[in-house]
């Protein structure tokens, strides 16, 4: 019995020693795991910061490259839109409409006569009750016809003169030239500094037309982004396509 008790004590002692060793090994593994996790987290942060710095550096270099590109040694074409037939038809239609309504104004003022109608009829429209031989009525109709024709012609001319055919970045990268269509087929030119133009839209967001405001000019200059072409899109974005505060 004494020998068996000793064997039991020895086995218990061995078990306790084994448990202590396992606990020490577990502590070492756990501490090494925490250390490795911390190291990995730090390495991830360092890697993320390095990637962020590289991206920022690439963006800065890209902007610098655009600035160097904008300091041009020769002119650069930023945009062009070739569709002269449309503007020929548009202005031809406007001229025809103008002369037609001018003729209607002259006819209304000189040849218009009153037609006798039963003005006591309650179902008669109000315009049938007008007395067209009255000077005021004939003058009002004539003025309305003339203004209608003049409005059609003016709208066509303004749209033509503000439709950009070519946009050229001039030598040195400090100014641009707007080449627009003309009502009689001849191009119109406008040289303006980059600091005097601004746009509220980006080239990518303007799906149909991109309006550009020129300081001191009425109405916007229009770039047809659907049918037009940007030969140097990035250069356009960093020059004429930027939003500026006009003084």
From TrEMBL:
Key words, A-Z: Membrane, Transmembrane, Transmembrane helix
Protein name per its UniProtKB record: Transmembrane protein 223
Organism: Cuerna arida
Gene Ontology CC: mitochondrion
Membrane-traversing stretches: 86-104, 140-161
InterPro entries: Tmem223, TMEM70/TMEM186/TMEM223
Record-level GO BP terms: nervous system development
Pfam families: TMEM70
């Amino acid at each position: 019995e004494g020998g068996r008790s000793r064997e039991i004590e020895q086995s218990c002692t061995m078990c306790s020693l084994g448990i202590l060793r396992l606990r020490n090994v577990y502590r070492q593994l756990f501490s090494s795991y925490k250390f490795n996790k911390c190291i990995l987290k730090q390495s991830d942060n360092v890697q993320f910061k390095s990637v962020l710095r590289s991206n920022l550096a690439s963006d800065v270099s890209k902007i610098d490259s655009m600035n160097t590109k904008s300091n041009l040694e020769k002119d650069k074409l930023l945009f062009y839109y070739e569709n002269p037939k449309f503007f020929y038809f548009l202005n031809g239609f406007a001229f025809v409409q103008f002369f037609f309504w001018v003729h209607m104004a002259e006819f209304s003022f000189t040849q218009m006569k009153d037609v006798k109608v039963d003005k006591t009829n309650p179902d008669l429209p109000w315009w049938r009750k007008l007395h067209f031989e009255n000077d005021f009525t004939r003058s009002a109709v004539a003025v309305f016809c003339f203004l209608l024709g003049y409005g059609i012609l003016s709208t066509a001319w303004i749209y033509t003169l503000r439709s950009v055919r070519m946009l050229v970045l001039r030598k040195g990268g400090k100014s641009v030239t707007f080449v627009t269509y003309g009502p009689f087929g001849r191009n119109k030119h406008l040289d303006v500094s980059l600091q005097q133009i601004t746009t509220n839209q980006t080239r990518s967001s303007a799906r149909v037309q991109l309006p550009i405001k020129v300081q001191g000019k009425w109405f916007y200059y229009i770039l047809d982004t659907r049918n037009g072409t940007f030969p140097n899109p990035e250069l356009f974005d960093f020059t004429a396509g930027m939003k500026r505060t006009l003084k």
